[in-house]
Specification:
By secondary structure, the chain is α/β, with parallel strands linked by helices. It folds into two domains: 134 residues, Rossmann fold; 193 residues, Dihydrodipicolinate Reductase, domain 2. It contains 13 helices and 14 strands. Strand 4, helix 5 and strand 5 form a beta-alpha-beta unit. Helix 4 packs parallel to helix 5 and helix 10 packs across helix 13. It comes from Salegentibacter mishustinae. It holds the Pfam family GFO_IDH_MocA_C3. This is Oxidoreductase. InterPro entries: Gfo/Idh/MocA-like_OxRdtase_N, Gfo/Idh/MocA_oxidoreduct, GFO_IDH_MocA-like_dom, NAD(P)-bd_dom_sf.
Length: 379
């Protein structure tokens, strides 16, 4: 086995869900060595967190400037080679830009930036740096999502006619109805979260997913958002009509006030010959529907699955794999790219996906603000 890639992390300290998800995922295929980073704005808290994790505090830095300066002093083969950005949204762009300018590979949480303009600037920076950049649209790492993508590309469902994606959560429901609470969390603060909460947080997952599995691009959209209260500046619910072409239409439904829902993410693609359905809360099952035929259920790990799907499957059939495994597959793809190994372009979301996501968010907000009208996405 080759030498492990040294990994640094920005954010993700304390009881952060996303922090443990990235740490576990990065360790799955023995490709990365987590060595340090900046986990908290308070340096002492960062060091305490490192001690809790059992890693040395010598590479726990005060801030990003300190990380870059100190890592540059080390021999090249000992330096942090890739940094994962797990901070609130408003920090993604400046941190990613600075890292790219200093030659680091980057794995960034979504949304990639807080504006489309920032995303395009980041693309220019990446082109100059010639490093690897990944955006963690996590659910693209599931084996049966990759199988779904490959089946559609192979024409197994025929020409696509209808796309329906739903992402429902309920976690903001108890917060939104308390004025003090809704004014205190960063996700409902435009200065920290950007112009959108629900669409920016989970709607962008749904948007990336439908373009990933279908191989199609959304050309136009019409959005209707819900803010619930007039003093709330961030959407917490939205429905978006989609046009892929004159005869291929779809709908994206996203909500964080779907009372009682946990993480109800479902993708349905219907073609002339068949349909495919997948649900994140039961990710090992891919359903194939055909007129006049019993519904078929495909599961991971079987030889009938594609090479891309099987590459993302660690265990024999019947052993459930979940979101940690899905994120692990993205890290695995990034490791291949950094090491110069051959990899499938669908193994991890790239800068292009991040840019498309930011264009989508801004167009959704624009469509709603203009009175729920059709607007075109950039090509």
């Amino acid at each position: 086995m080759g030498k492990k890639i040294k990994l640094g992390v920005l954010g993700g300290g304390g009881d952060s869900l996303i922090g443990i998800l990235h740490r576990v995922a990065s360790s799955m295929f023995d490709k990365f060595e987590f060595v340090g980073g900046v986990f908290n704005p308070d340096h002492e808290e960062s060091k305490k967190f490192a001690q809790e994790l059992g890693i040395g505090t010598d590479r726990v830095y005060k801030d990003l400037d300190h990380l870059i300066a100190e890592e540059a002093k080390l021999p090249e083969d000992q330096r942090i080679k890739v940094v994962s950005i797990l901070t609130p949204n408003f920090l993604h762009f400046p941190m990613a830009k600075q890292l790219l300018e200093n030659g680091f590979n980057v794995i960034c949480e979504k949304p990639m930036t807080t504006s489309y303009e920032e995303a395009k600037i980041l693309e220019d920076t990446l082109n100059k740096s010639k490093t690897i950049f990944a955006v963690t649209y996590t659910y693209t790492g599931y084996p049966m999502i990759r199988q779904m993508k490959e089946m559609i590309a192979a024409g197994e469902i025929g020409e696509i006619q209808k796309i329906d994606v739903q992402y429902y959560q309920g976690w903001i429901n108890p917060i939104i109805h308390d004025k003090d609470e809704r004014n205190s969390i960063w996700r409902l603060d435009p200065e920290k979260g950007g112009i959108s909460c629900c669409i920016g947080d989970i709607g962008t997952h749904a948007f990336d997913m439908i373009e990933y599995v279908s191989g199609l691009e959304v050309k136009e959209l019409l959005a209707d958002l819900n803010y619930v209260y007039s003093d709330n500046k961030m959407d917490v619910d939205g429905t978006v009509l989609l046009r892929f072409s004159e005869y291929v239409k779809g709908v994206l439904r996203s909500s964080q006030i779907a009372t009682g829902e946990e993480n109800n993410f479902a993708v349905k693609i219907y073609g002339k010959k068949a349909g495919l359905k997948w649900e994140q809360e039961n990710p090992n099952y891919l359903y194939k529907l055909e007129d006049g035929q019993p519904m078929k259920v495909l599961k991971p790990g079987h030889e009938y699955n594609s090479a891309l799907s099987l590459d993302g499957t660690k265990l024999p059939p019947g052993h459930p794999e979940g979101i940690f495994d899905s994120m692990g597959n993205i890290y695995k793809g990034v490791a291949k790219a950094i090491n110069g190994e051959k990899y499938h372009p669908a193994e991890f979301p790239t800068m292009k996906d991040g840019i498309r996501g930011m264009n989508f968010i801004e167009k959704v907000v624009d469509s709603h603000a203009k009175g729920n009208v059709w607007v075109k996405l950039d090509a």
